[in-house]
Amino acid sequence: MTTVLLVDDHPLFLDGVRAALSGRPDIEVVGEAHDRRGAVEQAASLRPDVVLMDLNLPDGSGIDATREILAAAPGTGVLVITMSADDDAVVAAMRAGARGYVVKGAGRADLLQAVTTVAAGGAVFSPTVAARLGTYFDGLAAQPGREMFPQLSQREREVLDLVARGYDNRRVARELFLSEKTVRNHVSALLGKLGVADRSEAITRARRAGLGQEPG
């Protein structure tokens, strides 16, 4: 039995998805959430096989919710519900750990296929999104600072790189598709891990390691 948690703040859409999934005896909708906080709490409690995640939630981003859910329930597969497969937010969600997406308005067969694929540990990508992710991870593999700052997480290195370019928290949030609060938390964490007193000292160390260079 594949268990599914639905996350969306549109009741009519949820009704449609629930109806589409209910026809399969091997799929059970175990919960519904209408905001980021509820999604994270229910995922941690229910440990569903798949979370169908809307990216636009009343109290935050589905991207942040994806990251929090995977931290709380690592075995869960997040499947993004999106209006457009070409949206930058879809790629950002994949970076956060989502395993694929289903376009709103997709047919029942496509929805079921996506859910079963993710539940089985697979991924659902279009060629366009897959190509963009490939470029992203190729660049990440060669990212300066990976050996210089092994104590930092991948996301913290990304934040540090942008901070070293002189970006403020708002610009960093926009570049990484995060909330400003999340960026502030990452900055505080990386300052502590680097053992520096302030942002200026972190920038100096990052630039010495080769971070903070504008692409191109």
TrEMBL record:
Keywords: DNA-binding, Phosphoprotein, Transcription, Transcription regulation
The keyword Transcription regulation appears for this protein: yes
In-chain residues carrying the UniProt-annotated modification 4-aspartylphosphate: D54
Alphabetical list of Pfam families matching this protein: GerE, Response_reg
Record-annotated Response regulatory domain positions: 3-119
Keyword Transcription annotated: yes
PROSITE patterns for this protein: HTH_LUXR_1, HTH_LUXR_2, RESPONSE_REGULATORY
Ranges for domain HTH luxR-type: 145-210
PANTHER family registered for this protein in UniProt: TRANSCRIPTIONAL REGULATORY PROTEIN NARL-RELATED (PTHR43214:SF24), TWO-COMPONENT RESPONSE REGULATOR (PTHR43214)
Protein name, as recorded: Response regulator transcription factor
Species of origin: Nocardioides pini
